[in-house]
């Protein structure tokens, strides 16, 4: 049994920050998916959670932040505060990359909630499999690469209120 297993998630949002949760990202991703209720990302996650019903609430309530400070990765899950950081470039990247990055990080969150682990080992593979994803590490996403691009993305995001 891992000592960290039941550690609570104590991420405190800045007062001006509108809290964002995994379910909000899924709503956005599924908005563009035909028949989203049947076969969208929400379906994918709910199906996966039938294997681990005890982590359902925590999974949907995983906090998300768009973080321009991410430099060489498109996403990251932080265990102690149960927070997924996503690179703002994903908003401009192909929807496939956005979905893939989000689910990759959500698999880490689920792995953490169910097993107290966060790595690319067996329990991460399991979560990726039940999410119907190939357990591959992410490839480079051009939109998430360099700083200049990030600044541009943030401006576009501001204009369009992404
Ligand atoms: Zn990873």
Essential attributes:
Zincin-like, 3-stranded mixed β-sheet, globular, mainly alpha, 7 helices, binds zinc ion, 162 residues
Can you characterise this structure?
The chain has one domain: Zincin-like. 29% of the residues are buried. Helix 5 crosses helix 6. Strands 1-3-2 form a 3-stranded mixed β-sheet, with helices on one face. Helix content is 44%, strand content 7%. It is mainly α. Strand 2 and strand 3 form a beta hairpin. It binds zinc ion. The site of zinc ion has 3 residues, from helix 5.
> Largest sheet at a glance?
3 strands, mixed
Ions, cofactors and other ligands present here are:
zinc ion
User: SSE order in H/E notation?
Assistant: HHHHEEEHHH
- Looking at the structure, what is the overall shape? globular
Domain count, please report it. Answer: 1
CATH fold name, please?
A: Zincin-like
**Helix coverage percent of residues?**
40-55%
CATH architecture descriptor: 2-Layer Sandwich
Measured distance between first and last alpha carbons: 41 Å
What's the CATH class label?
Answer: Alpha Beta
Strand order of the largest sheet: 1-3-2
Structural class: mainly alpha
Beta-strand percent range: 5-15%
Report mean pLDDT, rounded to a whole number. Answer: 81
* Number of helical segments with 4 or more residues: 7
Q: Name the poorly predicted regions.
A: 1-7, 146-152
Query: Over all CA atoms, what is the radius of gyration?
Result: 15 Å
Number of strands: 3
